[in-house]
Write a structure and sequence with these properties.
- 36% of the residues lie in helices and 24% in strands.
- With 381 residues, it is of the alpha/beta class.
- The protein folds into two domains: 120 residues, Immunoglobulins (Immunoglobulin-like, Sandwich); 216 residues, 3-Layer(aba) Sandwich (Rossmann fold).
- The strands form two sheets. Strands 1, 2, 3, 4, 5, 6, 7 and 8 form an eight-stranded mixed sheet that branches. A six-stranded parallel sheet has the order 11-10-9-12-13-14.
Length: 381
């Protein structure tokens, strides 16, 4: 990283720390003026253990609509990032009769890990009851929320780990200005997924038998501030919902590809270690380091990765040559790295490998054609 980038990151981190400390002192004296809320992120676990992360914030109360203007979207984006976090908040969680207490950090984040006394029957999504013990609401009412945790059922044959930006949704990540404009001026209703993604991911979840309920996990360098937007995007476009592994915006690692790589690798490793009986499919794009990150994953976890699908978005000859080299390296391990021009190509390969049913291919093709013919939402391309 160049010297100016290093200095910029250090300066931003110090400014963020100073702002957080000043805000915490003021709130300690004046209290919280707005209603407080618990924001649980989608968790994950097994029949033996669950992990749930979330945040406690002041409720700034805004809603998102399809017809929102670019200006309204920009304001909402600002609100997502300019959060009023509640440090050192005290919460109680209850799951299958087990209670745990946890405190938030200086950014308002909490992370719960609950080891179960008895194994439970894995049934996909389970709920965790959350209650804010302190600070209390000014009106004395109880502040609570319900977290959701994904526990893959025994029928699952493999897991799917997918990138988000430029893998399922166009983000223009190779052009930083366009990427910022796309995130800031559009919302979960007006951004569009890549053609055929919904049907392909649904087919992967169903598996070859049609009833496997294979889990999907999304690993991205997008900040946690966008968690609700991304989850709603998945729901709006009928893409299977799964736990998201995002980054703390407060870290302010804006320029480091090394940090992007270490973040993704650490979370992919966390997922694979949580589910040792499952093999995995990795899905990403050629825009940045997904192929390199996934190659390293194969090296660390031999025999755990069934296939890697890389959406081809960078057509520079040097990038294609680099990926060709990675394809050869990965093939030596017995795994396949497939550079796919579109979703239909990846789906055809998945069907040939017995990962999805060939009966799902017409639906994937039909959805792709429908997406091509439908009016596209505004994108900065």
């Amino acid at each position: 990283m160049t010297d100016w980038k290093t200095k910029a990151e250090i300066l931003l981190e110090r400014m963020d720390d100073l702002s957080d400390n000043l805000r915490a002192r003021v709130k300690k004296i004046t209290g919280f003026n707005k209603p407080l809320m618990i924001v649980p992120f989608l968790g994950y676990g097994t029949s033996e253990k669950i992990i749930l992360k979330g945040r406690v914030l002041e409720d700034r109360g805004f809603t998102v609509k399809r017809e929102d203007s670019a200006w309204k979207n920009l304001i909402n984006t600002y609100r997502r990032f300019e959060t009023d976090e509640v440090p050192n908040a005290h919460l109680k969680a209850e799951f299958f009769g087990i209670e745990r207490e946890v405190f938030t950090d200086r950014e308002g984040y909490f992370e719960l890990e609950i080891n179960l006394k008895e194994h439970i029957n894995p049934q996909s999504w389970q709920t965790v009851a959350l209650e804010l013990l302190t600070p209390r609401a000014k009106n004395g009412e109880t502040i609570s929320a319900v977290g959701k945790v994904l526990i893959p059922p025994d029928t699952a044959q493999f897991g799917i780990i997918s990138d988000i930006d430029d893998t399922i949704i166009s983000s223009n990540i190779t052009d930083k200005l366009k990427m910022v404009l796309t995130v800031a001026l559009l919302n979960e209703h007006t951004r569009v997924p890549f053609k055929g993604v919904s049907a392909f991911y649904q087919a992967l979840v169903k598996g070859a038998s049609g009833s496997e309920e294979n889990p999907v996990f999304y690993v991205s360098s997008s900040p946690w501030n966008l968690h609700s937007l991304l989850v709603e995007f998945l729901k709006v476009h009928n893409i299977p919902v799964g736990p998201l592994f995002l980054k703390d915006f407060g870290n302010h690692i804006l320029f480091s590809s090394k940090d992007h790589q270490s973040h993704k690798l650490a979370n992919i490793q966390r997922i694979l270690e949580m589910y040792p009986r499952l093999s995995f499919i990795l899905i990403g794009d050629s825009g940045e380091q997904d192929p390199e990150i996934y190659r390293e994953t194969v090296r660390r976890f031999p025999n755990r990765i069934r296939v890697i699908y890389i959406r081809s978005i960078n057509l520079e000859p040097s990038r294609i040559a680099a990926i060709d080299k990675l394809i050869a390296e990965v093939s030596e391990t017995g795994c396949q790295l497939v550079l796919a021009p579109d979703t239909e190509f990846a789906a055809a390969h998945a069907a040939a490998e017995g990962l999805i049913s060939t009966a799902d291919l017409p639906e994937i093709r039909s959805e792709k054609i429908k997406d091509e013919l439908s009016p596209s939402a505004k994108e900065f391309v």
